[in-house]
Specification:
Blueprint (H helix, E strand, L loop, with lengths): L2 H8 L4 E3 H4 L3 H10 L1 E5 L4 H21 L5 E3 L10 E5 L1 H4 L1 H6 L3 H11 L3 E11 L7 E4 L8 H5 L5 E6 L9 E3 L8 H12 L9 E3 L6 E5 L4 E3 L7 E10 H7 L4 H20 L40
Parallel strand pairs: 1-2
Antiparallel strand pairs: 2-10, 3-4, 4-5, 5-12, 6-11, 7-10, 7-12, 8-9, 8-11
The structure holds 2-oxoglutaric acid.
The site of 2-oxoglutaric acid has 7 residues, from β11.
Protein name: Phytanoyl-CoA dioxygenase family protein
Keywords: Dioxygenase, Oxidoreductase
InterPro entries: Phytyl_CoA_dOase-like (IPR008775)
Length: about 325
C-alpha cells in the first residue's frame, strides 16, 4: 500500500454496512482499537422519517415553551438569543424514540460490544438548529469517574449516536482514534491544547455520517464538534453500560439497574406489538440470571428515570 492510501485509510472512521454484513469480528476489532465505528444504514427510510418527525416536534416544542427541565440552552431560555441544544429522557417524550430504543439490530450490536448484561443509561437528543450551537469542546464522556481509564478501560461503556440528519465534515463530530487508551495526563494535556483555540482538529478524524447511520464511540474516546450557525443536525444518543460494572461501581445505585432493564424491556415490547415492525425478530434480552433485576419490581409508571435520583455518590 502506498503512503497516500495509508493516510486515507487511517484518516477515516472505520465503518460497517450493517444490513449487508452484520457486525463482523473485524468491525469489533476496529471498534476496540480505534474507539469509534460508523454503522451505516441502521434505520429504514420509514423509521427514519418517524424519528425525524419526533425530533422536530420535540425541538419545536422547546422553542415554543422554552422549558428549563430536561433541556439545555445556549443561554438562559428566557433570553431572546437563547437556542436549545439538548433534550434529556427522550425515550419518555416521544413514542418513535421509545420504539427506536427497542431496535433489534441496534440491541444485538450492543449485546456483542457491551456484553449480555448491557443496560441503557443515557437517552438524549443533541442538536444544532439554524440559530446556531456553540463548539462542543474536546472531551471524554467519562467525567463521572476520577479514574476513568481504570473503571471503563474495558471499552464496554458505549455511546450510540443515531443520526437524523447528514453530518458533513463542517458539521460533524470529530474524534481521535486510539485516544480511548490514553492515560488521564495525556488526555487532559491534549484536550487543553486543542481547546485553547476555537477549533483545532490536529490528530482527529471527521465522523461524516448520513441520516439513518449510527456512530458508536467508546466513552473514553476524545471527541468534540465545531460551533455552527445556519446548519442543522439532530442526533439521538443512547448510552449503554454493563450491569455488572454499574452494580459494583456505579455511578448509579443498584436499584437503577432493574428500573432501566424495565425501560428496555418495555421499549422492546412496544416495538414487538407495533404492526409496522411485524416482520422483525424482536430482540431477546437475556442478561445473566443474577443480573435480571427487573424481576419482582413494581410496574413502571414512566420511562423517564432521572439520574440525580439514583446517583451512588
Ligand atoms: O453530536 C455532537 O455534536 C456531539 C455530542 C457530544 O459529544 C456530547 O453530547 O457529549
Amino acid at each position: 500500500m502506498n503512503a497516500v492510501a495509508e493516510v486515507r485509510t487511517s484518516a477515516r472512521v472505520p465503518e460497517c454496512d450493517i444490513r449487508r454484513t452484520g457486525l463482523l469480528p473485524e468491525h469489533v476489532t476496529e471498534f476496540r482499537r480505534q474507539g469509534v465505528l460508523a454503522v451505516r444504514g441502521l434505520l429504514t427510510p420509514e423509521e427514519l422519517a418517524d424519528v425525524q418527525q419526533a425530533g422536530k416536534a420535540l425541538i419545536d416544542r422547546a422553542w415554543s415553551t422554552r422549558p428549563i427541565d430536561d433541556h439545555v440552552w445556549t443561554l438562559e431560555p428566557h433570553l431572546p438569543d437563547a437556542a436549545p441544544v439538548r433534550i434529556e429522557y427522550v425515550v419518555d417524550k416521544a413514542r418513535p424514540i421509545a420504539l427506536l430504543a427497542g431496535h433489534p439490530l441496534l440491541l444485538r450490536i450492543m449485546e456483542q460490544l457491551v456484553g449480555p448484561n448491557f443496560i441503557p443509561t443515557w437517552d438524549s437528543l443533541v442538536f444544532k438548529t439554524l440559530a446556531g450551537a456553540p463548539r462542543l469542546a474536546w472531551h471524554r464522556d467519562a467525567g463521572l469517574y476520577t479514574d476513568a481509564v481504570g473503571v471503563t478501560g474495558m471499552g464496554r461503556v458505549i455511546d450510540a449516536g443515531i443520526y437524523l440528519d447528514p453530518a458533513p465534515d463542517d458539521n460533524c463530530v470529530w474524534c481521535i482514534p486510539e485516544s480511548n487508551y490514553w492515560d488521564g495526563e495525556r488526555l487532559t494535556a491534549t484536550a487543553e491544547r486543542l481547546n485553547a483555540s476555537e477549533w483545532d482538529t490536529t490528530g482527529a478524524v471527521p465522523a461524516v455520517m448520513q441520516a439513518g447511520d449510527v456512530l458508536l464511540h467508546n466513552i473514553l474516546t476524545l471527541h468534540g464538534a465545531p460551533a455552527v450557525v445556519g446548519k442543522q443536525r439532530r442526533v439521538v444518543y443512547f448510552e449503554y453500560r454493563p450491569a455488572e460494572v454499574e452494580w459494583e461501581l456505579g455511578p448509579h445505585t443498584e436499584d437503577y439497574i432493574g428500573i432501566k432493564q424495565q425501560v428496555l424491556r418495555s421499549c422492546i415490547e412496544m416495538r414487538a406489538a407495533d404492526r409496522r415492525f411485524g416482520d422483525e425478530e424482536p430482540f431477546d434480552y437475556r442478561p445473566a440470571e443474577s443480573l435480571r433485576r427487573w424481576v419482582d419490581r413494581p410496574e413502571l409508571t414512566t420511562l423517564r428515570v432521572p439520574h440525580e435520583e439514583y446517583w451512588r455518590w
